[in-house]
Amino acid sequence: MAQNIKWYNKNFIDIDNPDPTITITDSVATDTGQSYVDYMINRNNTSGWRTTGSNDSANTQIDIDMIDTYGIDRILLVNHNLKAFTIQYYNGASYTDFSTPINETTNTNTTNEFSFNSVQTSQIRIIITGTQVADEDKLISQLIITTALGQFEGWPQIVKPTISKNKKNSRLLSGKSLVTRQVGSFSCELSVENWNNSNDLDLVESIYFNPTGVLMWVNAGDDSQFSRTNIGYRSKDIYLVYPVNEYIPEFYKFYYNTGIKIKIKLAEVVR
Predict the structure, then answer these.
(1) Which residues of the chain have pLDDT under 50?
(2) In whole angstroms, what is the distance from residue 49 CA to residue 142 CA?
(3) Co-location of 114 and 167 in the same domain
(4) Predicted TM-score of the model (pTM)
(5) Domain boundaries, position 246
(6) Strand 260-268 vs strand 250-251: parallel, antiparallel, or unpaired?
(7) C-alpha distances in angstroms, 78 versus 143, 165, 167, 180, 195?
(8) Predicted pLDDT of residue 271
(9) SS3 assignment, position 108
């Protein structure tokens, strides 16, 4: 069965949080990629952390110290090439498995979501023992540590999904055009004419009134539900968004025992 949109709180180790530190240990690599660890948390799939000269015997270790203690129940590895790895959390005395142990040995996905019972922790450890191509350098574009907000039960229409480059066209004296453009940002609208699912409306309100942006995953880990995974619908497309319109809980046709007409205008945000 197809997966509906999934929502998460903002990454606890997001690039705009100055506290967390990420430390890489690799006994083989000529470059552990320590200088590039911030690329794992900058919300951008065009960059990432990567080793140089590592191999499968290196047991590459990533230690994340969040400094503050958070309740977490989700970890996502986005746009990576890892085949065999374990992820554990620090319980105050030692590193231990989550309620659902994360111990992959034959992973073939390039984006993974791991869910488990919520734990309170300030430290996460990832040990990589194999890549999908043997002895290839390790690569992770995004590492997300967070909590789930929920997943819609109903199916809102995704209207005007837009990847904007904010293009500006200047006509030169030669008659040719000079087009300047930015990296690009995502926006869309979610529309339901008559939404009466209480769980979904609770989720809508949590999206509107979250003090920070929320992470939106349209793909939700299921490529098969799309005839083609266009940009915005790919497994690696997870965006930090925020509603840019106001919350207007107007009852459908003004009958108080019906659902609510909802249109959420979402835009990718800096923070």
Answers:
(1) none
(2) 8
(3) no
(4) 0.93
(5) 157-268
(6) antiparallel
(7) 6, 23, 28, 29, 32
(8) 77
(9) coil
